[in-house]
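DM between two lab members

TW: hey, do you still have the tRNA N6-adenosine threonylcarbamoyltransferase entry open?
JB: yeah, one sec
JB: this one, 352 aa:
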Amino acid sequence: MLILGIETSCDETGVALYHTERGLLAHALFSQVAIHADYGGVVPELASRDHVRKLLPLIEQILAEAGLARADIEGIAYTAGPGLVGALMVGGAVAHALGFSMSIPVLGVHHMEGHLLAPMLEQNPPAFPFVALLVSGGHTQLVQVSGIGEYILLGESVDDAAGEAFDKTAKMLGLDYPGGPRVAALAEKGQAGRYRFPRPMTDRPGLDFSFSGLKTFTLNTVNAARAAGDLGDQTRADIALAFESAVVDTLAIKCKRALQLTGCKRLVIAGGVSANTRLRAGLETMTAKLGASVFYARPEFCTDNGAMIAYAGAQRLRAGQQDGDRIAAVPRWPLDTLPPLNQRCDDGLAGA
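TW: and the structure you got?
JB:
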């Protein structure tokens, strides 16, 4: 079964072709970073307009790369949420228009389920069950995964997501958008030990996260250095390293607790922040001590992309799930409300 995947949840226009027997055939991504950089963050209306401009040309591009035609597509999966509602509507409208014209099934996919399943695209995919750390600009969650659609939320951020804290720290340090990768790059030049930042909510039981206090601590550190006339390049790098180390340690401590609580021996990390090399190294060290393994997607599939949506959609479309005639666009959508893979759902997964 050949599935077209469409991702338009935020500021990345992603498309991919996934075959349930042949695997990933082609994928393409257009990033809007240059469009939003002058504003220091994503402007929703500009994001929606650019999805309109880029989506159909990208679909034609990957069809040409795969040597296929539109008529070869047997199903379409698109991101139905969470995300920016206008951007979601662009992807949903294109998916349904194509599906209606071709008389093929269409399904709205949960964005974070796409991230969670992205490591399945690798040569050594994780087996079920596992614990998943979903860490991005909008989400920081620990989920127990028994199968596709079989999710138990173990913990999540009670305020800011880790990725959002990275972006806000980048602004404090005078770095450009997108902030996360720039903080990580600056941290590589930092000297360990000069600053010690707190590891929030690790001194109490539970698996929830909180990064707002760490963000405030970072701001106070930056302001103190500025007031002392000591906010030069090395100080900024030292602060970036202390901040990044605090986030990595916090995530590793909570992941360790989740593995011990569930008894799972496999940890999956997914989402944009999962591309962070210090985080990967920290989790590899932690899981090795527990006799467990950690899995993640290649960097290009950590950020938003069409391949993860095509894969997640392919599993559900093959099981008979589809939208029907209604476009699903759900800005807020709890992951643990998704139906299991074997539950037919002809009226759409989103319930909206």
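TW: got it. Residues 258 and 330 are 29 Å apart (CA to CA). The mean pLDDT is 95.
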